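Notebook entry, structure prediction.
Reason for the run: the old model in the group folder had no record of what sequence produced it. Starting over properly, with the input documented here first.
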Amino acid sequence: MTASSPPPLADLLHAAVTAVGGSERPGQIAMAEAVAEAIDDNAHLLVQAGTGTGKSLGYLVPALAHGERVVVATATLALQRQLVERDLPRTVDALHPLLRRRPDFAMLKGRSNYLCLHRLHEGVPQEDAEAGEAGLFDPFEAAEPTSKLGKDLLRMRDWADETETGDRDDLTPGVSDRAWSQVSVSSRECLGASKCAYGAECFAEAARERAKLAEVVVTNHALLAIDAIEGAPVLPSHEVLIVDEAHELVSRVTGVASGELTPGQVNRAVRRAAKLVNEKATDALQTAAETFERLMELALPGRLEEIPEDLGYALMALRDAARTVISALGATRDASVQDEDAVRKQALASVENIHQVAERIVEGSEYDVVWYERHDRFGASLRVAPLSVSGLLREKLFEDRSVVLTSATLKLGGDFNGVAASLGLFPEGVRDADGEEGAVPPWKGLDVGSPFDYSKQGILYVAKHLAQPGREGSRSDMLDELAELVEAAGGRTLGLFSSMRAAQAAAEELRGRLDTPILLQGEETLGELIRTFAGDARTCLFGTLSLWQGVDVPGPSCQLVVMDRVPFPRPDDPLMSARQKAVEEAGGNGFMAVAATHAALLMAQGAGRLVRASGDRGVVAVLDPRVERARYGSFLRKSMPDFWYTTDRNQVRRSLAAIDAAAKAADA
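New structure, fully documented this time:
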């Protein structure tokens, strides 16, 4: 090695793994080499790296060795914190002697995640519809000091003098969304550093400055989507993008690219603007709001393939009235309003959102899906979302930089093509309609496997003898099967259900049949439920979507993972059904491309809850015979870890009893 050449990647990886306290694994080495190659070639890479591979170091080491700025985007707070508080500090220290430089790193989130000093010291824009004046009020004086809200506010005021980051996630214990909203602002509501009296001390601005100087910036999928979609850069320029937990990216980008209108939103915008602009402008917005609210009272849930005439007129009235108010807010000033800029900025943000969403729905793009939703607590809402984000991602995400996407679940049905297509990448080797290569550099998929021996550590059991689940009604045979499996396992069960109603019914039934403690999602905070579940091997935990992807409990407390049915999207889900129909109209198989792919991803994630360490043993039980009987069953099975497969119920009971006995003997 000459003085100018970089150290060998193998030496760097060895140093980093040693510093973090692990051992190198073949999959991790293969991943690091592939990431380095993709970065050097300015290409794109999809890497499936199973649990236990050590994928964080598999991408951090080659990224740091490259020497250009890297953005790492994750879906969960847990992984962001692991990277910034554990993996990056140790890796940078370990690589410093070899690289002869010490790369800086920083975390960057959306503005509303940081405490706003202006709100803390000057107050919050008045929301009271009966208030006689526009202006600010002090939430610290308004809240009852002995109430939960009051105590949280006082604690945040003390914390503001101590914190270096102002990051909500550094406040322990945390506070409610209601409390945090009193001391934070969205990017639209922010005055801007140059106009704010506290701009020089702003926590959000400080985080941005740290990110500009850092070689590695850790952020989240939502901020990445905002940066790519909205055309106003919030991330520093970068040469390499790494997307971890990449199976979540399409969902997060869809969320950022969606819009919503509710009567509550519109009425709030009217109240905020009413005391700042002339009566004529606000009267028009008020009238449009009342018309919209009357229509929403009659709204039935479902997709609107065409906008009804009365709704179209109401939205045009909202759009036009909002445009007038926006102009008025920019043209007038009222010296009597306390801290008018902050009050005006909040009003402007509300009215601009009304204008943008109403205009988008009125324009009626063929690439948008519009639907009504109805909520028990909040009434009806009107929503709009992109039919697909693949084109958006192809255009905005994969140009001018190398992108590495990694997750434990990117291969569905045996290949990467389904996930790649959802991200806007052509299948490997496929050219576009003009016979040319895609408008982005080439990509490849790599499965580096897992250090776990799934075929020896786990069993995939499908209860093919059960009746096929219907859309409604109790499944008594499924509950009988579930009770027998839990009893054989001695508890130790994570129950993953396709709906909260099903989870509640199963918990109620088994609490009446078994002595085993049954925890139910929603009866306590998720963190507390998982801690209790992990701490008592006899305990079961039942729940829905967040448990399919968010539970990491290695050891004997989780030796049976049960899925009550294939988690297809609801047939009446407007966005998913629209996407399925679009694929069919284009000549594809809409069910496989949308519904089956959605289910396969969740089942792969759910099955991944079982084996979290090299000593784990257990069973994944799917209580839906379609996984064995239906034509798409093999696609679903191929998407899950390569467990030993059986439909023999007696064999599974014997295996669970043996695993339970071994765990008890180890504890004795």
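Summary: DSSP finds 27 helices and 20 strands in the chain.
The old model has been moved to the deprecated folder.
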